Amino acid sequence: MVYRPDYFGPPDLRAQWELIEEYPLGLMALAVDGRPAAVHVPFVLDRHAWPYGRLRGHLSRGNPICAELANNVEVVVAFLGPSDYISPDNYATQPHFPTWAYAAVHVTGRPRLLDDVRLVRQLDDLIEDQEKRLAPKPPWSLPRQASPLFEEYFRLIQGFEIPIARIDGVFKLGQNKSAADMRAQARAFRARRTDSADRLADYIERHNNLERQEPGPRPASEDRDGAPGTPADQGE
């Protein structure tokens, strides 16, 4: 269960699916011998599976978590999308306190083991999804003919699927702030000139129905709030 104040969601199911597909490395957590355990797993999402979709992944058989997957245990898988620190200087108004912007989705379900045929399909789907992101590089794919390397690798892993019983998202993207403050946040993130900050700016704009904010040069007369010619403490 995700703690989520009303103004931070819930995002619709499609938005949650899109985050999982864009950030497929999930943190899967469960109890092993009465103690908490977790592992990072790259997943494939099947949207068509009723009612909320299905995750497919694989683990090293040497991981103690792997032995638990056949025991009808409940697991939680957390997917973290774009995230970054927000400075009080990144708002159009004052005063504010430092905080963090992020989008995340938590999935709950009970894993089921995959047979060899479905494990190969999971590997194919995962590799295909990731390779197409590397275009124009020609995509790499699993060899269709057996090889000692493939056989060795295949013996070391166990495939599994998680029918999604519950999905919870929290998109903390400034929805409790004014439109001017959300636009200022997007501009500030984009001005950092990093891929991760730019993706976070995209999320703020997309999920708050804002037009794209470009950082641009700051006019000499513009104060720290982003209001030209206006004293920074006006209205305080």
From TrEMBL:
Compositional bias (Basic and acidic residues) spans? Answer: 201-226
- Give the Gene3D superfamilies listed for this entry: Electron Transport, Fmn-binding Protein, Chain A
Q: Where is this region: Disordered?
A: 201-236
SUPFAM superfamilies assigned to the protein according to its UniProt record, in alphabetical order:
FMN-binding split barrel
Q: What Pfam families has UniProt attached to this entry?
A: FMN_bind_2 (PF04299)
Highest taxon in the source lineage: Bacteria
Instruction: Read off the InterPro entries from this record.
Output: Split_barrel_FMN-bd, TR_PAI2-type
Instruction: Enumerate the PANTHER family for this protein.
Output: PROTEASE SYNTHASE AND SPORULATION PROTEIN PAI 2 (PTHR35802)
Q: What is this protein called?
A: Negative transcriptional regulator, PaiB family
- Which species does the entry assign this protein to? Goodfellowiella coeruleoviolacea
